[in-house]
Write a structure and sequence with these properties.
Blueprint lengths: L12 H16 L5 E5 L1 H10 L2 H5 L4 E4 L12 E6 L3 H14 L5 E6 L5 H9 L6 E6 L5 E4 L2 E3 L5 H6 L5 H17 L4 E5 L1 H16 L1 H4 L8 E6 L14 H9 L1 E2 L2 E5 L6 H8 L4 H7 L3 H5 L4 E5 L5 H6 L4 H19 L8 H35 L2 H14 L9 H8 L4 H14 L5 H15 L3 H10 L11 H8 L25 H9 L4 H8 L7 E5 L19 H6 L2 E8 L4 H12 L5 E7 L5 H9 L2
Parallel strand pairs: 1-2, 1-3, 3-4, 4-5, 7-15, 8-9, 9-14, 14-15
Antiparallel strand pairs: 6-7, 8-13, 10-11, 11-12
């Protein structure tokens, strides 16, 4: 069970259970001793749908895929769970030729679908006879939390915008259809952007072809909003200032897991034998799997999701508020632990003893997050962090964006990290809705002079992806900054009143669009305002073709007609090309406002940050 995935209207635990059942069915079709070999890209996703116990109960070993592998002779079946990449097939061919023996079979489970090119590669290498099952695990959206699902496809935006490979868009469409099979037909659809339009066109056609779905009853989800990453390229380049966003940018959160050197956690060594450095209570409840089983003991892995009460409270807060909350939490624990027991009655002591396990759990969680916050504090107090943040905010208010930035010139002259220099140039370009040609050419010359001509290959990719381009007549960002109040001068970071707190100054454009769409006639009003953004603005309705409608269904519950009148509407927001933790925090903030009467389910091709997004596009 994955209890942190449960929710009332759209229970994402169902999605996990379906994925787990599909895996078990495939494994049960293969008789004999087994070992599963995991492509690196599948190690994390497997842990989102299956617990270690599932494999331990069946005596199945888990192994990471490596170029050269030798398997024990007693293994009759080698099962590869891989992404459909032709480059991986060469490694499988090497394994087959080096590990063939009488009675042994190899099998491949492709995620999320079989690839003809991969199978052709195996045929060309003359090893198809060694393979038994060549099947697929149709895992398009994987549940990360009770309100977030992800395709875990980091290079989706790059694949489409640079390489012209629209596979991820087709998979997103199939994923939408799968969600509607589980949770019912979505009646209202709104969207913005070319890639978002392509996803919906595919999904609608697939739903029409599947008549039972298109003609089915309205489900648990009331509305779908599809947003193309290309309409807002400033947000993924900006520094996130929420606790979860900063953890991701500095240390990387991968599949709900944070891995850090164990030396930062003194209690780690005391628990190493029992929990391999992982928060055991959290790990056992969330199915934490691969990094602990396949990793080393010098690093500590912490599971980060809403299953842990403290993290659920901290994750979406601005980091300045997190400091205060942790200090308060430490004081509360100290007060409870330091009460004079001699003055208490036996009954009061018994109550304390009963609460002690929960109190120790809180103490451990607080200790861990205090250590993490301390590491982040060191980073955010560096002069370079503040200087970068000040430069970003200058760009966000459109100050001197039509000329070369003195701060960027200084960074180039000091030959600082290329990734950060390119990020700030791209951020200036996004705020200016394109750089003047002379400014762009000046930056290119300076970059080539200092970093070498090879930097122009990265710049070329940034141009293809729309992150760098010359200015047009449209000043979309400058206009929307004022009409949608994207920058808020008096933004409140502690107990905020506006979504701009996630960047301490700037409200993500995508989240602001969703916020305005919640108002009466919101999307109709927005349409005229966002025409200057790239790509089409569209809306659609999936009206039941046969009959008038029926009981809502899906999500594991069938609410009565009377309860639905007062139920919060459920909006599925799909980010095509990735979204940040700051955007997720902004949507959660909107959902927490009672006046909005809304619950969000957030779907994305991948959760990204300023580093992973830029590196993917540049081709690092």
């Amino acid at each position: 069970m994955f209890p942190h995935l449960k929710s009332q209207r759209v229970n994402l635990q169902l999605l996990q259970e379906v994925a787990s059942r599909q895996l078990v069915q495939q494994l049960e079709c293969i008789e004999g001793s087994k070992a599963i070999v995991l492509d690196e890209a599948m190690i994390g996703p497997l842990g989102l749908v299956a617990k270690p116990k599932l494999f331990a109960d069946r005596g199945i070993k888990l192994l990471p895929l490596m170029p050269e592998m030798r398997f024990p002779k007693e293994l009759n079946n080698i099962i590869y769970i891989v992404r459909p990449q032709v480059s991986l097939m060469d490694q499988l061919v090497t394994h087959v030729k080096g590990n063939s023996q009488h009675g042994r079979q190899f099998h491949i489970l492709f995620v999320p679908r079989r690839s003809c090119l991969c199978i052709k590669q195996l045929e060309d290498k003359d090893v198809m006879g060694a393979f038994g099952r060549l099947e697929e695990l149709p895992w398009n959206f994987l549940p990360l939390d009770s309100d977030v699902v992800s395709m875990e496809m980091l290079h989706s935006y790059r694949d489409v915008s640079i390489d012209g490979d629209t596979t991820s868009l087709y998979q997103a469409a199939i994923g939408l259809v799968q969600l509607q099979r589980l949770y019912g037909r979505i009646p209202k659809i709104y969207g913005k952007g070319r890639q978002a339009q392509l996803v919906w066109d595919h999904a609608k056609q697939l739903a029409i072809d599947e008549k039972s779905l298109y003609n089915g009853d309205k489900g648990s989800i009331d509305q779908l909003i599809l947003l193309d990453r290309g309409i807002d390229l400033l947000t993924p380049l900006a520094t996130q200032l929420t606790y979860e966003g900063l953890i991701d940018e500095f240390y990387g959160i991968r599949h709900n897991q944070l891995t850090l050197p164990a030396e930062h956690f003194p209690s780690y060594y005391a628990n190493a034998d029992g929990a391999s450095g992982t928060t055991s209570s959290t790990a056992s409840s969330t199915g934490e799997l691969p990094e602990r089983l396949l990793g080393d003991t010098e690093r500590k892995t912490i599971v980060l999701n809403s299953g842990e009460q403290l993290y659920a409270e901290l994750r979406n807060k601005n980091f300045n508020e997190v400091r205060m909350l942790l200090a308060r939490k430490v004081r509360e624990i100290q007060v409870q632990m330091n009460v004079n027991r001699q003055e208490q009655t036996v009954q009061e002591i018994k109550i304390f003893v009963d609460r002690l396990p929960q109190l120790m759990k809180q103490k451990k969680a607080t200790s861990e997050h205090t250590a993490i916050a301390g590491l982040i504090d060191e980073k955010v107090n560096m002069y370079s962090f503040h200087d970068d943040l000040a430069a970003e905010q200058e760009f966000m208010i459109c100050a001197d964006i039509d000329r070369p930035s003195a701060y960027i010139e200084d960074l180039i002259a000091r030959r600082t990290e290329l990734r950060n220099v390119l990020r700030l140039i791209c951020l200036q370009c996004a705020a200016a809705s394109g750089l003047k040609e002379r400014v762009l050419n000046y930056y290119k010359r300076e970059l080539a002079h200092v970093y070498g001509l090879e930097v122009l290959l990265k710049v070329s990719n940034l141009e293809k992806a729309g992150l760098l381009h010359t200015q047009t007549e449209s000043r979309a960002y400058a206009v929307l900054r004022k009409t949608l109040h994207l920058t808020v001068d008096d933004s409140v970071e502690v107990e905020p009143r506006d979504i701009s707190y996630v960047h301490s100054f700037y409200a993500p454009l995508t989240a602001r669009l969703v916020e305005h769409s919640l108002k009466p006639l919101g999307w109709q009003t927005l349409k005229s305002q966002i025409n200057n953004l790239p790509g089409p603005t569209f809306e659609d309705f999936q009206v039941q073709l046969i009959g008038i409608g029926g009981r809502p269904h899906g999500g594991g519950a069938t609410p009565s007609e009377s309860s639905l009148l007062h139920a919060r509407r459920v909006v599925l927001v799909l980010f095509v090309g990735g979204c940040t933790f700051a955007e997720i925090a902004a949507l959660r903030f909107l959902a927490a406002q009672e006046d909005n009467n809304v619950q969000f389910v957030i779907a994305t091709t991948k959760i990204i940050n300023k580093h992973t997004f830029l590196e993917s596009v540049m081709g690092s």
